[in-house]
Specification:
Elements (H helix, E strand, L loop, with lengths): L18 H26 L6 E10 L2 E12 L5 E9 L2 H5 L3 E11 L2 E12 L6 E7 L4 E4 L4 E3 L10 H7 L12
Antiparallel strand pairs: 1-2, 2-3, 3-4, 4-5, 5-6, 6-7, 7-8
Length: 180
């Protein structure tokens, strides 16, 4: 009730709480709901964007040697496809015209990047260079384009998916990592 609104004598009145208390209760209810729903919302949204393009300038001895463009695109089935295109620029372009290409696919499972395929090749060279791998997570194996099969190491990442794995789960100072 409001202090200046006294009920008339003999009339039936519904007493209500003062407006500031009602407003405070509403705010507390909304804050409680926000706290409870925030973890659910963060679980529902992926940690990687649906699409992304990053451009790097490669330097050698203070001079620009090349440019590398890395693109990421989420596919309709929920997997990701990435491409990397590296070209020589500046002084390096006078020595070589070889361009490097990488492409691959991966899935995010339990907030971890799981590579599915990787291909690396070059164009503009007299020698062919083409390497690819396919990962079979069910059989815990990596199949190389040469026909060799090896056991899948724990926490495996290929050259192309590694940066996305680190984006999704940045290392902390307490974690030890090795890249092979």
């Amino acid at each position: 009730y409001r202090a200046n609104q006294m009920p008339k004598k003999g009339s039936y009145t519904t007493w209500s709480q003062p407006e500031p208390i009602l407003a405070m209760r509403r705010i507390l209810i909304l804050l409680t709901l926000a706290c409870l729903l925030t973890p659910l919302i963060s679980l529902a949204t992926p940690g990687l964007p649906d699409s992304l393009e990053m451009v790097y300038t490669l330097k050698y001895g203070g001079m620009t040697a090349g440019t590398s463009t890395r693109s990421l695109e989420r596919q309709g089935d929920g997997s990701y496809r990435y491409t990397i295109h590296t070209i020589p620029t500046g002084v390096a372009r006078t020595f070589t015209r070889v361009q490097w290409f990488e492409e691959g696919t991966f899935r995010v499972v339990k907030n971890q990047v799981r590579p599915l395929s990787y291909l690396k090749y070059r164009k503009g060279s007299s020698k062919d260079h083409r390497h690819s791998t396919t990962v079979n997570w069910d059989q815990a194996q990596i199949l190389y384009s040469s026909g060799a099969t090896v056991a899948l190491p724990e926490h495996y990442q290929d050259q192309g998916s590694l940066v996305f794995a680190l984006m999704l789960n940045p290392p902390t100072d307490a974690q030890a990592h090795s890249v092979q």
